[in-house]
């Protein structure tokens, strides 16, 4: 599989500061793909993550969120993707030395849907009342797949036409 799409449906009833009925909030919804076999420099795992979107106060309650990765063999992070497992002198997270986007994807041990960036610290308790449904990871058809499909349909059409002519 050279490309894939991750998608989900989410319905948010409430996101609030601290408790039900608290101050309404917005949060990012993040897909994090974790590799526990290759721990980071100072972390228990290495990962790549992507912000699927923002959910919560003032936004549509029901949303369909997705991301498509067009090249799983990429050595660099695609646009919008971030790495986790090591930090630079400015405390910005990145992939540890020797890790790449392709290596993480090859060895994913865990997919996490979280509302906090893996490289951040949350200083408050947040109350969530939401539902996630229709979680899908699907291969994106490659151009060769379309060619084979069209060739197969053409062959079926030819066989059907030949059968009609012979009768």
Automatic annotation (TrEMBL):
<feature type="domain" description="Ice-binding protein C-terminal">
    <location>
        <begin position="139"/>
        <end position="163"/>
    </location>
</feature>
<dbReference type="Pfam" id="PF07589">
    <property type="entry name" value="PEP-CTERM"/>
</dbReference>
<dbReference type="InterPro" id="IPR013424">
    <property type="entry name" value="Ice-binding_C"/>
</dbReference>
<protein>
    <submittedName>
        <fullName>PEP-CTERM sorting domain-containing protein</fullName>
    </submittedName>
</protein>
């Amino acid at each position: 599989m050279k490309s894939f799409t991750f998608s989900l449906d989410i319905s948010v009833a409430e996101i609030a500061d601290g408790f039900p009925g608290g101050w309404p909030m917005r949060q990012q919804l993040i897909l994090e793909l974790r590799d526990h076999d290759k721990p980071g420099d100072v972390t228990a795992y290495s990962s790549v993550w992507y912000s699927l979107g923002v959910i919560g106060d003032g936004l549509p309650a029901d949303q369909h969120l997705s991301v498509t990765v067009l090249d799983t063999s990429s050595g660099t992070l695609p646009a919008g993707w971030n790495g986790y497992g090591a930090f630079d002198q400015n405390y910005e997270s990145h992939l540890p030395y020797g890790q790449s986007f392709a290596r993480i994807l090859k060895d994913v041990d865990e997919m996490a849907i979280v509302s906090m960036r893996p490289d951040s610290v949350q200083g408050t308790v947040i109350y969530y009342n939401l539902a996630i449904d229709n979680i899908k990871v699907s291969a994106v058809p490659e151009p060769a797949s379309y060619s084979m499909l069209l060739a197969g349909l053409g062959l079926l059409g030819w066989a059907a036409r030949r059968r009609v002519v012979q009768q």
